[in-house]
Amino acid sequence: MEIPRHWRLKQQRYSLVGEVCPHCGNKIFPPRDVCPNCGDEAKELYTFSGKGEVYSYTTIYEAPSGYDANAPYTVAIVKLEEGPMITAQLTDLGDQPVQIGMPVEMVTRKMRNDGDERGLIVYGYKFRPAWKVN
Amino acid sequence: MIDVVIAGIGQTKVGELWDIGLRDLAFDAIQDAVKDSGGLKPQALFVGNMLAPNLSNQAHLGALIADCAGLAGIEAMTLEAAGASGGAALRQGYLAVASGMVDVALVIGVEKFTDKVGPDVDAALATTSDSDFEAVQGMTPTSQAALLMRRYMHEYQVPADGFAGFALTAHANGANNPCAMFQKAIKLETYMKAEMVSEPLNIFDIAPNADGAAAVVLTRRELLLTSFAHPHVKISGSASISDTLALHDRKDMLYFDTAQLSAGKAMKQVGITLDQINFFEYHDMFSIYAALQLEAIGFAIKGKGWKLAADGAIGLKGKIPCATMGGLKARGFPGGASGVYQAVEAVTQLRGQAGTNQIAGAKYGLIQSLGGPASTAISHVLERL
After folding, report:
1. C or N terminus of chain A, fewer CB within 10 Å?
2. Exposed (0-12), middle (13-18) or buried (19+): which is A103, by Cβ within 10 Å?
């Protein structure tokens, strides 16, 4: 399924590569070549740190096909420290309750598969609770 | 300026209609609408549909439905804007007649949800969001609404039963709508005990996916037949606005810009202010959407939309009656038909045919159809002449 489509997005899926606007300095994810802040052309690549905090979150019990084997799972909107918001699953939560404002960091995880042992497995970014530095 | 009037209305019952397919559903509504118009002959057909290529493996609905309705030969096409598809079809019909290029336009909204069930329906609905950056994460429109509602409750300190008023109002009004999926009022305790779907969103915060079709016939006022017996209802304002498809790309997720801009533009065309609107058919796909529309349009200040529901202001006797025939919550959410149902229900009110749910002396009705989390908002003001 859709192999070229996922391959094409590998820089975003695996490394959070977005753009920075040379005109206003706005950081953009995903890349879109036109700055949503100032409307000028923005093609300079920028790799995000992957650090951010939870803006909001919820749990999905009844998942769409392709994801139902993993349900329930937690999805969130994460505010990246560089500014943009991003939609992503939260992972590696253990017993830790999720809270708005919780610091998180990007990791690479399996997103879905075709449900067929020979099918494509899509990998991409998820976010886990950030390591605490003591 | 051409007066575009709604000459005919038709609708099927909304629900899980296992024994009737997409084309027959559409035909039922069309037949009623054409008959109600006194037998006007449509020259163009605009179909509002959201997911038939996915749910029913059927694209090209324009030709299919025109053919099945005995209208083969006329101009016919589909308009798709997710949940706002019905509003999009209505607007296209309005533009066609207002331009003077089409004398009689037929607008049909139709959705056949139950051709698929369970995770396949959730996957189909997810295609209306940003496939590469939202749906790929296993996100669904329902869980997205839950994220919005959680953040809203966090920012504005809303109590757990804060949104109950939306479902209570919808169900109370749906009880008197013979086409509604749910025709039974519910109690607060029923809402409070309801199953969580995606916290904090419970089953009563979500409009049910359902089958249904609704149709309207549009024409210029002077083309109405002399035998036409109904009060004349005109489309006085019409506007459609788009925003970022992905929710996370909004500058402020808790403010539905498109709801404000499209409603404001439509009302400006009519030259009326908010206090002249007699009722509002919002797109209560989720209760949080209803609250955010009320705030964006200006019926409530930011963070207080839920209070209108909690205080009874959206009831039939309230300051701004909403979902007067049950809204999406109780009438049901027949996808791309929803926006056309809103038009049919508003015409019913403006003609004075809403029975127990009649808003006395209604002159102006505002209807608003949303695609996704207001990624598209299409607003119409309907006026009794």
Report:
1. C
2. middle
Same domain? A89 vs A113? yes
Helix residue ranges per DSSP H, B157-256: 164-174, 188-192
A42 and A106 part of one domain: no
Q: How far is residue B37's CA from residue B105's CA, in Å, rounded to a whole number?
A: 11
How far is the first Cα of chain A from the last one, in angstroms, to the nearest whole number?
45
Query: Same domain for A64 and A98?
Result: yes
In this structure, the answer to whether residues A14 and A72 fall within a common structural domain is no
**Same domain flag for A76 and A91:** yes
CA distance B376 to B83: 9
Could you please state the CATH topology (level 3) that the domain comprising B139-207+233-384 is classified under.
Peroxisomal Thiolase; Chain A, domain 1 (3.40.47)
- pLDDT at residue B120 above 80? yes
Selecting from A58, A68, A84 the residue whose C-beta is nearest the C-beta of B147 gives A58
pLDDT value at position A131?
A: 78
CATH number of the domain that A87 lies in?
Answer: 2.40.50
Residue A62 has pLDDT above 60, yes or no: yes
Range of the domain at A75: 50-134
Q: What's the mean pLDDT in B331-343?
A: 98
Residue B48 φ/ψ, nearest 5 degrees: -95, 115
Contact present, B196 and B320 (Cβ < 8 Å): no
Is the CB of residue B143 less than 8 Å away from at least one CB of chain A? yes
How large is the angle between the packed helices B287-297 and B164-174, nearest 10 degrees? Answer: 100
In the structure, what pLDDT confidence band is assigned to residue B235 with cuts at 50, 70 and 90? very high
Interface contact A63, partner B, CB < 8 A: yes
B249 chain-A contacts, CB cut-off 8 A: 36, 84-85
Whether residues B249 and A85 touch (CB distance < 8 A) is answered with yes
pLDDT on residue B176? 97
At residue B181, does pLDDT exceed 90? yes
A28 to chain B: nearest residue by CA? B249
Fold for the domain defined by B4-117+209-223: Peroxisomal Thiolase; Chain A, domain 1 (3.40.47)
How far is it, in rounded angstroms, from Cα B83 to Cα B88? 10
Domain ranges of chain B: 4-117+209-223, 139-207+233-384
Number of domains in chain A: 2
Mean pLDDT on A94-107: 95
- Closest by CA to B350, choosing from B317, B383, B322, B377, is B383
- CA distance to A107, A111, A122, B192, B290, per residue, from A114 (Å): 22, 11, 9, 38, 36
What's the whole-number mean pLDDT along residues A6-23?
95
For residue B112, give Cα distances in angstroms to A100, B20, B186, B344, B382. 38, 9, 27, 19, 27
A73 and A104 part of one domain: yes
